């Protein structure tokens, strides 16, 4: 669709770059890319390419809103522009900066069961470290278990993949700036299993006509995930989305689930909903 818009700008001068009316604010590894690509199946949605990182990086923020607007795709009046930068969620300055741009912006927060998210985060960090230095002999990387537990057996709360999964620590700042009903909490585990039902809720939240349905998805057995379908093509997300996770010692898993019990309760209180994550 973007090239078509560019071609037709002379015919439709109203096509313009607009600031986003909705932002996927995080959380990393919870399905932020899948969510954006699925919403883009809607004819009234335009998406920014890549992650813009305007509100969380001072060098970008200092370039001003006009720079930010120029990072956005062309859209027609009535279309919604969406961008996603998952690190917005964990960066303290971001809520206030977004409010200063547009106090009525709609925010999408996608979350997953926190231990699964932490393992996904670990898996990505390990994969990135391996590709960053392909010529250097591979460093024997530490296992997930070694990283999440301290030598005395207690939880290494400072380990970033665990810290990010304590969602309430970050969400409370957003709720000091935005009313609760301006943030839609999307269940990322359900988005994997049943994308249609989740996307329909989001269409409603964004005030979009219901257009996305079962005809937009097919299950790809090889990938093990739903892939996306529109009038012209079928496509799955890249292989970096839907990685195989390492097997984690069940004792460590249950220790972590227990540890997140309190954090999850605090998060449920903040959002006013129990997501039923295992303890
Ligand atoms: P894993 O790769 O650990 O399975 P993000 O885009 O925020 O980095 O999130 C990546 C996660 O999106 C993946 O984590 C995967 O589980 C999830 N996901 C949700 N729906 C997906 C889909 N249809 N295809 C691939 N990955 C999907």
UniProtKB/TrEMBL annotation:
GO terms for cellular component: Golgi membrane. Signal peptide: none annotated. It comes from the Eukaryota. The keyword Electron transport does not apply. The active site is at 29 (for sulfotransferase activity). Residues 20-263 form the Sulfotransferase domain. 3'-phosphoadenylyl sulfate binds at residues 29-33, 112, 120, 226, 241-245. It is a single-pass type II membrane protein. It catalyses: alpha-D-glucosaminyl-[heparan sulfate](n) + 3'-phosphoadenylyl sulfate = 3-sulfo-alpha-D-glucosaminyl-[heparan sulfate](n) + adenosine 3',5'-bisphosphate + H(+). One of its GO terms (molecular function) is [heparan sulfate]-glucosamine 3-sulfotransferase activity. The keyword Cytoplasm does not apply. Keywords: Disulfide bond, Glycoprotein, Golgi apparatus, Membrane, Signal-anchor, Transferase, Transmembrane, Transmembrane helix. It is found in: Golgi apparatus membrane. Its EC number is 2.8.2.23. Its main location: Golgi. Disulfide bonds join 227-236. This is Heparan sulfate glucosamine 3-O-sulfotransferase 5. The chain holds residues 101 to 379 of 380 of the full protein.
């Amino acid at each position: 669709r973007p090239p078509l818009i560019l071609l037709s700008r002379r015919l439709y001068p109203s096509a313009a770059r607009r600031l986003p009316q909705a932002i996927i604010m995080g959380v990393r590894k919870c399905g932020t890319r899948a969510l954006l690509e699925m919403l883009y199946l809607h004819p009234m949605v335009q998406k920014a390419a890549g992650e813009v990182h305007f509100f969380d990086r001072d060098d970008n923020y200092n370039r001003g809103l006009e720079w930010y607007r120029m990072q956005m795709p062309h859209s027609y009046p009535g279309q919604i522009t969406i961008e996603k930068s998952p690190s917005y969620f964990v960066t303290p300055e971001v809520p206030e900066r977004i409010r200063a741009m547009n106090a009525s912006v709609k925010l999408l927060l996608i979350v997953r069961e926190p231990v699964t998210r932490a393992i996904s985060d670990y898996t990505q960090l390990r994969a990135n470290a391996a590709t960053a230095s392909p010529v250097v002999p591979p460093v024997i990387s530490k296992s997930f278990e070694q990283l999440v537990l301290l030598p005395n057996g207690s939880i290494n709360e400072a380990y970033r993949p665990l810290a990010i999964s304590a969602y309430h620590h970050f969400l409370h700042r957003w709720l000091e700036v935005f009313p609760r009903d301006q943030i839609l909490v999307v269940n990322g585990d359900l988005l994997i299993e049943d994308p249609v039902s989740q996307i329909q809720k989001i269409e409603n939240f964004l005030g979009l006509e219901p257009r996305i349905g079962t005809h937009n998805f097919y299950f790809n057995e090889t990938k093990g995930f739903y892939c996306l379908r529109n009038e012209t093509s079928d496509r799955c997300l890249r292989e970096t989305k839907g990685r195989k996770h390492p097997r984690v010692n069940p004792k460590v898993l249950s220790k972590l689930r227990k540890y997140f019990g309190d954090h999850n309760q605090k998060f449920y209180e903040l959002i006013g909903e129990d997501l039923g994550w295992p303890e």
